[in-house]
UniProtKB/TrEMBL annotation:
Zn finger (C4-type) start-end: 29-51
Keyword field: ATP-binding, Cytoplasm, Fatty acid biosynthesis, Fatty acid metabolism, Ligase, Lipid biosynthesis, Lipid metabolism, Metal-binding, Nucleotide-binding, Transferase, Zinc, Zinc-finger
PANTHER family reported for this sequence: ACETYL-COENZYME A CARBOXYLASE CARBOXYL TRANSFERASE SUBUNIT BETA, CHLOROPLASTIC
Region (Disordered): 294-333
PROSITE patterns per record: COA_CT_NTER
Function as written in the Swiss-Prot or TrEMBL entry: Component of the acetyl coenzyme A carboxylase (ACC) complex. Biotin carboxylase (BC) catalyzes the carboxylation of biotin on its carrier protein (BCCP) and then the CO(2) group is transferred by the transcarboxylase to acetyl-CoA to form malonyl-CoA.
Pfam families in alphabetical order: Carboxyl_trans, Zn_ribbon_ACC
GO CC, alphabetical: acetate CoA-transferase complex
UniProt source species: Azospirillum brasilense
Pathway the protein takes part in: Lipid metabolism; malonyl-CoA biosynthesis; malonyl-CoA from acetyl-CoA: step 1/1
Gene behind the chain: accD
Protein name in the entry: Acetyl-coenzyme A carboxylase carboxyl transferase subunit beta
Annotated residues for binding of Zn(2+): C29, C32, C48, C51
Keyword Glycoprotein: no
Amino acid sequence: MNWLTNYVRPKIRALYARKEVPDNLWHKCPSCEAMLFHRDLEENLNVCQHCGFHMRLDPIKRLASMFDEGDYQSVELPKSVVDPLKFRDQKRYTDRLKEAQTKTGRHDAIVVGSGLIGGQPAVVAAFDFGFMGGSMGIAVGEGILAAARTAIAQKAALIVVPASGGARMQEGILSLMQMPRTTIAVEMVKEAGLPYIVVLTDPTTGGVTASFAMIGDIHIAEKGAQIGFAGARVIESTIRETLPEGFQRSEYLQEHGMVDMVVHRRDLRPTLSRVLTLLMQPVLAVATEALPAAPAAVQTEEPRSQAEAADETPSQAGAERAGAERTGSEQAA
């Protein structure tokens, strides 16, 4: 009886027991409200296959989708000061950081990787909106600076993919100081003659928009991304006018010259590949010209041996002496 009770009965119950379905198998599209199976959504890079709505994408998956064959090397970022102002609102800033780090599994709101895109060297810095809204603090400023230095050292293009609500208020003026720091980092890349490309995603607002996100050589935006400085409701309440439809969206900004091109997420890597192939040609040409030229070979007449000189006939020797005398007389004349 013990064998039947302890072994057979649990096996039978396990076969017919009702299995619990995980909560994350299906996702609801925020735009068309269609139910999307999680595997289909991941294969489509978090883009709704019904309406084309671009959902936010984890930075690790984004880096894998941008680099060739998904192969890249992570760039180690320097550690920054934690809670320099000892800030506290409803919670301590340190507690908020620990919660965000536990939730995302990373130190802060930026991830940097280096590799090849279309065969061209590139360094990509991607933001994580899930980490305190992708806000820019000291750690993010250090990350942009480290990405710029890596690009210069590797003679690679710098690509930044912002997804941020702006500066991090818990770090006060220190977060605002990251605006000029990141701008200087970008200028370092440009002075080195390297391309700087910005891929604008949803959302790109606040101090990020007012600094490095709007000084790229080329601005590429994902479809439907919200891009601006202040929120639409704040602008409406300030100017007391109704804003046009699609205001602060990628397509609207492209029509008004603020964005160079709007691309679907699946077309991002081919687009970057074409752009980098064009922009990196001058860099490769300069690098080729800077290489030292190979020394030219100097041809010298090999000395004749005594045996060869002895075999020379008197007529040949006389002809050579006569030619030498004529040359000397012509030079004297």
